[in-house]
């Protein structure tokens, strides 16, 4: 009888051993973990305040606009005329910049205009009263204005609908601020969210610069002797600046790209989105000698860093770890820089340990996901712009946590084979179809999702990216790149927001004067557009073709295209004419004279 009882007890234990984990798993699958969004650069509401907390206003009585809180344009012009007119005039007349006076004057005006009000002191604190709007609780407890602001920055509407606004938090901060203090505030918000939800661990969604804050957060947990897993369930990194950006490091080290093709060709049109002014600036620069133009730009960058951004630890955190030692020596070698060196050294060590800290936290049970954009060159303003694969702003090595990639426009060598550095299953294919990326070298190779051709600044406009982030944050059963074919490891960029706007416009058209052929064309284009927008996997060119076809159908009925830069059939306006004219002149002069200014040509 005792033996039979023991057998029954063992059987019961085995049964419970099988059932209880299943029950726990089921409970975890249904558990909603509150999610905290950590937005990117300039995605928080930041204000320039008086001592009494009211907003400061400019000479026109208007609040200063973030992120730089610039003076009114007329005031900037007055400042420039007062401080730079004489040296610039002298340069113009003599075609010589003696003692770098023009370069220094221009650099001072630009530095003061761009970063004068976001400057920090030697302790890493803002000199002026720059404050980010704080959200101490979840979106359900915020005002309508604050809730709308948060969802406009990172449009997780579907997550809020599924999980409830009470389960979504938005962490706000000033992008030029003190990274240690900001990360400490994030740590406290995590504790608040846990307390408001009965101790449930939270999810984090660091976006872009939010990825650097997450690196600081992991270091704070280490400093406190705590494991990240005590508070965090999942982390969904979205185009994170995990190792800063090569763009910023290159500029800090070498200044702006100053070869002729860049300076007088594509740099300014790229920065100004093909606006006519972007083609006019290179023409105007030719009134100065080429050597002086390059010196002015290099001096402007150096003074901007040395005099205005030197004590912004958030900016230092956006520099690649491999560039930090040289930049520390270049900019922070004076005795009065000791406190900032201590703070930037702290983040440098956190940055060097970033990937290992993730692997350690993963071992502790924290689940990590990553979303990276690729096959876009960096903005053409630095030497490395076309030498790395990127999303326009951050290089892929940083956002993907280590993926190997070919430069934009190229492929991995023919003899290249998948490295499987972090892949335990050699049968997995981690090289994309175009042989641009080997994801197996990224530390999260099975949970990193790539979007080809997606630009960093338009990531939130890609509905598939947002749907994927929502799935990761809400669905605990979603595990990796193999979970759902609708979300494969390698996908494509798109502009869902533009497509959705066109669909809405098409559905609201007055068709009373449209012909039967126009109506039929609109119906067909609308059906195709809806189908394209509903799918989660479609090459960018096919998606854009469906979007443009719908716009063509709309234009055929209305006779007037939507007012966007990308729509076809737009009427030629004065800015359009100027853009074409200046673009033609710019290209012609570049082909004929290279980067020579007028005096350079006369001296030949």
Largest pleated sheet: 7 strands, parallel
CATH topology of one domain: Rossmann fold
Number of helices: 22
Please count the beta strands (DSSP E, at least 2 residues each): 11
What is the CATH homologous superfamily assignment of one domain?
Answer: Alpha/Beta hydrolase fold, catalytic domain
Q: What is the CATH architecture assignment of one domain?
A: 3-Layer(aba) Sandwich
Which stretches are poorly predicted, pLDDT < 50 over at least 5 residues? Answer: 1-27, 562-570
**Radius of gyration from CA coordinates:** 27 Å
CATH C-level of one domain:
Alpha Beta
Task: Please state the average pLDDT score.
Answer: 89
State the secondary-structure class: alpha/beta
Share of helical residues: 40-55%
**Strand content range:** 5-15%
Outline: globular
Strand order of the biggest β-sheet: 4-1-5-6-7-10-11
Gap from first CA to last CA: 112 Å
């Amino acid at each position: 009888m005792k033996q039979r009882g023991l057998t029954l007890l063992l059987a019961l234990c085995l049964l419970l051993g099988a059932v209880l984990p299943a029950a726990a798993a089921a409970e975890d699958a249904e558990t909603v973990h509150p999610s905290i969004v950590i937005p990117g650069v300039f995605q928080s509401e930041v204000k320039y305040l008086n001592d009494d907390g009211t907003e400061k206003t400019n000479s026109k009585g208007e609040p200063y606009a973030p992120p730089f809180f610039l003076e009114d344009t007329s005031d900037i012009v007055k400042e420039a005329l007062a401080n730079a007119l004489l040296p610039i005039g002298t340069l113009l007349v003599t075609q010589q910049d003696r003692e770098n006076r023009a370069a220094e004057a221009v650099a001072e005006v630009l530095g003061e205009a761009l970063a004068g009000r976001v400057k920090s002191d030697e302790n890493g604190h803002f000199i002026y009263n720059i404050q980010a709007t704080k959200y101490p609780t979840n979106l359900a407890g915020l005002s309508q204005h604050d809730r709308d602001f948060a969802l406009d920055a990172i449009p997780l509407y579907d997550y809020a609908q599924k999980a409830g606004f009470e389960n979504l938090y938005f962490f706000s901060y000033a992008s030029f601020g003190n990274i240690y203090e900001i990360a400490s505030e994030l740590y406290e918000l995590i504790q608040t969210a846990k307390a408001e939800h009965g101790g449930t661990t939270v999810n984090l969604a660091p976006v872009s610069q939010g990825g650097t804050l997450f690196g600081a957060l992991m270091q704070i947990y280490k400093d406190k002797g705590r494991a990240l897993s005590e508070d965090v369930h999942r982390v969904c990194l979205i185009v994170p600046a995990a190792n800063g950006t090569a763009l910023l490091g290159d500029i800090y080290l070498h200044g702006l790209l100053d070869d002729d093709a860049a300076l007088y060709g594509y740099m300014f049109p790229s920065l100004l989105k093909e606006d006519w002014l972007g083609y006019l600036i290179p023409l105007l620069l030719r009134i100065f000698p080429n050597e002086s133009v390059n010196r002015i730009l290099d001096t402007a960058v150096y003074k901007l860093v040395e005099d205005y951004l030197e004590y912004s630890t958030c900016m230092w955190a956006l520099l690649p770890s491999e560039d930090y030692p040289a930049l520390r020596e270049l900019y922070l070698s004076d005795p009065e820089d000791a406190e900032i060196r201590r703070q930037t050294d702290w983040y440098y060590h956190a940055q060097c340990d970033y990937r290992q800290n993730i692997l350690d936290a993963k071992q502790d049970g924290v689940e990590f996901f990553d979303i990276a954009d690729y096959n876009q060159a960096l903005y053409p303003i630095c030497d490395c712009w076309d030498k790395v694969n990127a999303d326009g702003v951050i290089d892929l090595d940083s956002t993907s946590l280590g993926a190997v990639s070919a430069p934009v426009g190229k492929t991995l060598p023919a003899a290249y084979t998948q490295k499987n550095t972090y892949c335990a299953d050699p049968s997995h294919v981690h090289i994309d179809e175009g042989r641009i990326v080997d994801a197996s070298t990224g530390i999260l190779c099975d949970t990193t999702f790539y979007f080809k051709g997606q630009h960093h600044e338009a990531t939130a406009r890609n509905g598939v990216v947002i749907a994927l982030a929502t799935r990761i944050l809400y669905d605990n059963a979603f595990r990796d790149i193999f979970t759902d074919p609708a979300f494969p490891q390698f996908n494509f960029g798109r502009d869902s927001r533009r497509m959705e706007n066109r669909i809405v416009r098409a559905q609201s058209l007055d068709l009373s004067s449209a012909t039967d052929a126009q109506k039929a064309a609109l119906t067909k284009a609308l059906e195709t557009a809806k189908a394209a927008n509903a799918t989660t996997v479609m090459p960018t060119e096919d998606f854009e073709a469906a979007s443009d076809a719908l716009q063509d159908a709309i234009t055929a009925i209305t006779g007037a295209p939507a007012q966007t830069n990308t729509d076809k059939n737009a009427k030629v306006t004065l800015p359009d004419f100027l853009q074409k004219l200046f673009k033609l002149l710019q290209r012609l002069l570049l082909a004929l004279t290279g980067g020579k200014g007028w005096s350079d040509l006369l001296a030949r």
